[in-house]
Design goal:
mainly alpha; 4 helices; 0% strand
C-alpha cells in the first residue's frame, strides 16, 4: 500500500471520529446535568479533527512537492541559494517558564496564592523569553557591503568588518 493512501485513510477515519465526538459532546451537554464531561468530549473531538486536517494537508503538500520534483527533473537545474536561519543562543527563560508552569499546576490543585504566583511567573518568563529571542535575532551579523567578485580588477580580498 502506498503511504499517501494510508494517510488519506487515516485522515478520513480521524475526521469521522472527530465529527462523531463533536456531535456526541453537543448532545451530552444538553442531555446531562453535569458540566465537566461535555467540554472534554468536545476537546477530544476537536483534536481528532485537527489530526485529520493535518494529515490531509501533509498529503497535499507532499504530492505537490513530488509533482514539482518531477517537473524540475525535466527542466534545467536552477541554482538556489541556501539561506541559513539565525541561531538563537541558550537562555534561562525556558527553565523559568517550566518552574512557573509547575507552580501554576500546583496552584490549580492546592492554593489560590500559588496559582497567582505561578501565573505571574509564567507571564514574566514568556515575556522575557520572547524579548530575549528578539534581541538575539536583531544582532545577527549581516555584511555591510556585498563582497566584490574576484577577478582581474580586484587584487585584494574583501574581509567583512567585525563588530
Amino acid at each position: 500500500m502506498e503511504v499517501a493512501s494510508i494517510m488519506k485513510f487515516f485522515a478520513l477515519v480521524a475526521a469521522g471520529i472527530g465529527a462523531f465526538l463533536i456531535e456526541a459532546g453537543i448532545i451530552y451537554a444538553f442531555a446531562s446535568g453535569e458540566y465537566v464531561g461535555a467540554p472534554l468530549i468536545l476537546v477530544v473531538g476537536g483534536g481528532f479533527l485537527y489530526l485529520a486536517l493535518y494529515a490531509t494537508r501533509a498529503v497535499k503538500r507532499a504530492s505537490v512537492e513530488v509533482q514539482a520534483q518531477g517537473a524540475s527533473d525535466r527542466a534545467e537545474p536552477v541554482a538556489v541559494e541556501a539561506q541559513e536561519e539565525p541561531h538563537v543562543g541558550p537562555t534561562i527563560w525556558p527553565l523559568v517558564l517550566s518552574v512557573g508552569a509547575a507552580v501554576l499546576a500546583i496552584g490549580a490543585v492546592a492554593s489560590r496564592w500559588a496559582l497567582l504566583v505561578g501565573a505571574v511567573v509564567v507571564v514574566v518568563a514568556g515575556t522575557g523569553w520572547f524579548v530575549d529571542i528578539i534581541r538575539q535575532w536583531r544582532h545577527v551579523p549581516t555584511p555591510s557591503t556585498p563582497p566584490t567578485p574576484p577577478g582581474p580588477a580586484t587584487d585584494t580580498i574583501d574581509v567583512p568588518e567585525r563588530r
